[in-house]
Design a protein that fits this description.
alpha/beta, Rossmann fold, six-stranded mixed sheet, 10 helices, 10 strands
């Protein structure tokens, strides 16, 4: 579904992503793990068209997308849930969801909103509430729900558990797994490597802008080097 080949990304003179290649197959959860500054978020921004690669290629559903604008990628079925949730603070929950479905017809939006509410019952309870007054966990649920409004083929998630209490972290990861079980392919960037690998099919370890290791998630969980560096021993 997604094939990234030998991409290089710079911030000015800083070479942030160095010849990175990876792929995500339909129906998978694939996670990118690594220390802060390893290039994980930069990779997601590059795939989603916010940043540009200097060389290499990015293919989605068989089409080269490395020069396509972010808004057009949404039409193609690629959704990006950025770090920090980024909900529309002054809009209601339901208005946020409607913004996520701006490319769809009114009838499609109505059906998709009901699917989101079925996935996130707490969001249904707060559909008339101003998004900025929601808790951190509820805002993350809203961000995930909004990403589903465009009926994406692939959802990229950047640090969905950041800043959440442990009990909510488990709930968010359960929801991500449910989304995948329902047919959504997911590319996940997550600082909580143990939780990410516990639900992923495969993983890639990034170190200073390069892929240092790739394997099935279960193998990475059992890898001594990965455990020492990212899983607390």
């Amino acid at each position: 579904m997604l094939e990234v080949r030998d991409i290089n990304v710079y911030y000015g003179a800083i070479h942030a992503v160095k010849g990175v290649s990876f792929e995500v197959a339909r129906g998978e959860i694939v996670t990118l793990i690594g220390a802060n500054g390893a290039g994980k978020s930069t990779i997601l921004k590059t795939v989603s068209g916010i940043l540009r690669t200097q060389g290499g290629s990015i293919s989605f559903m068989g089409d080269e997308i490395s020069s396509i604008d972010a808004c057009k990628l949404t039409r193609m079925g690629l959704s990006h849930v950025p770090e920090g949730r980024c909900v529309f603070q002054q809009l209601t929950v339901e208005e946020n969801l409607e913004m996520g479905g701006y490319l769809r017809s009114a009838a499609e939006n109505r059906r998709n909103i009901e699917r989101v509410y079925d996935t996130f019952p707490r969001i249904r309870e707060r559909k008339r509430q101003i998004a900025g007054t929601l808790s951190g966990g509820e805002q993350q649920m809203l961000a995930l729900g909004r990403s589903l409004m465009s009926a994406p083929r692939l959802v990229m998630m950047d640090e969905p558990s950041m800043g959440l209490a442990p009990v909510l972290v488990r709930q968010i990861f359960d929801i991500i797994k449910e989304m995948n079980d329902a047919g959504t392919t997911i590319l996940l960037v997550e600082q909580n490597a143990r939780m990410a690998l516990s639900i992923a099919h495969r993983g890639y370890v990034l170190e200073t802008g390069r892929i240092a290791l790739s394997a099935d998630a279960s193998e990475l969980l059992d890898n001594d080097d990965v455990r020492r560096a990212y899983l607390g021993g």
